[in-house]
Design brief:
The protein has 328 residues and is an alpha/beta fold. Helix content is 41%, strand content 16%. The protein has 12 helices and 13 strands. The strands form 3 sheets. It has a 7-stranded parallel sheet, sandwiched between helices. The model has no long low-confidence stretch (mean pLDDT 94).
């Protein structure tokens, strides 16, 4: 098939492009850069420069394509980024779907996130039927991912053959998120003293990419699928990281009010010295919740595999601790 991928500059998008090329598909990437990301340069792929919010321009890039993977999006938990979050995650999704509908694309896979699904009731593991319950909390990334999904599903109701995949926090080679590298290095050094009281669904990069490939022919249009690998509390995650990295286990839980105060302080102080804080109030608030989801639907309908978390961190630790990772 001839496949177009947005968001190929991200580590998930880049790995998906590599996988699609490995199995023989013809790939075109679309993005704001003038050329394909460096790691994809050796591959025989086509690249079109453009903005996902330009429906007509994106439509022209679809010429000859039968499948679209829409992975482009903005991840930010900073309040100051709300306008850009809305433009990218909501307006961008609407624009891409409109162009795909006009071009009669045969299959569209939209990459969302469990952040756009809501918070499961305490002590429970939610699934795709959960109703979004974070509106009005000031969690702008979550809000825009949810609104983006709603835009996508409106097009599904009108006949666009699109399905939604929702991974959790994703670990894998090529990851450019600085705070993931910091976690691995701080655990190895033994200076991460505490852990948040919550937990989250983690996803292994290779699991998500393979399920993306499976979604070429499997899955039902108009449906969303949670694609996670393991539900792990932050305390248990820290213990497993300490085991793999031969570091010291954190020995206390951060009190919620203290974590939120620290997030507010970071947002106020870091911009004054020209830095963008990794810890924000939104991150601190979410880290106190156990955001656990079932991937049973994806396993049944998409053949989604779930790598144990310990196996994921054992495989990826050399990458996160390498000099190439530190450079990000």
């Amino acid at each position: 098939m001839k496949v177009l991928v947005t968001g190929a500059s991200g580590f998930l998008g880049a790995r998906l492009v590599e996988k699609l090329c490995e199995i023989g598909h013809e790939v075109r990437t679309f993005g704001r850069g003038a050329s394909v990301p460096g790691r994809l340069a050796p591959l025989d792929i086509d690249h079109v420069q453009g903005d996902i919010c330009d429906t007509e321009g994106f439509g022209r890039a679809l010429s000859g394509c039968s499948v679209v993977y829409h992975l482009a999006g903005l991840v930010s938990y900073r309040r100051t980024d709300y306008q850009q979050l809305y433009k990218t995650n909501v307006e961008g999704a609407r624009s891409v779907m409109a162009a795909c509908a006009k071009a009669s694309i045969e299959r569209v896979v939209h990459m969302s996130s469990i952040a756009g699904m809501g918070i499961p009731p305490a002590g429970s593991i939610a699934d795709e039927s959960i109703e979004y319950n974070l509106k009005g909390h000031g969690l702008y990334y979550c809000d825009t991912k949810h609104e983006g999904e709603m835009e996508v599903l409106k097009f599904a109701e009108k006949g666009l053959p699109v399905l939604v995949l929702s991974p959790g926090i994703t670990f894998g080679e090529g990851d450019t998120h600085p705070h993931h590298h910091t976690i691995f290095r701080s655990m190895q050094g033994g200076w991460l003293l505490g852990y948040p009281t919550g937990g989250v669904m983690f996803s292994d990069l290779e699991d998500v990419v393979q399920t993306c490939v499976n979604a070429l022919t499997a899955g039902r249009p108009g449906e969303r699928y949670v694609v996670g690998s393991a539900n792990v509390s932050f305390q248990d995650a820290a213990c497993m990281l300490a085991e793999v990295l031969h570091g010291r286990k954190p020995f206390f839980a951060f009190p919620g009010p203290l974590a939120e105060a620290a997030g507010i302080a970071c947002e106020a102080v870091f911009p004054l010295v020209g830095r963008r804080p990794a810890l924000t109030w939104q991150v601190a608030w979410l880290s106190q919740r156990k955001i656990f989801f079932s991937s049973d639907k994806a396993a049944k309908e998409l053949g989604h595999k779930q790598t144990p978390f310990l196996e994921t961190i054992r495989r990826t630790a050399p990458y996160y601790l390498s000099n190439s990772a530190a450079a990000h």
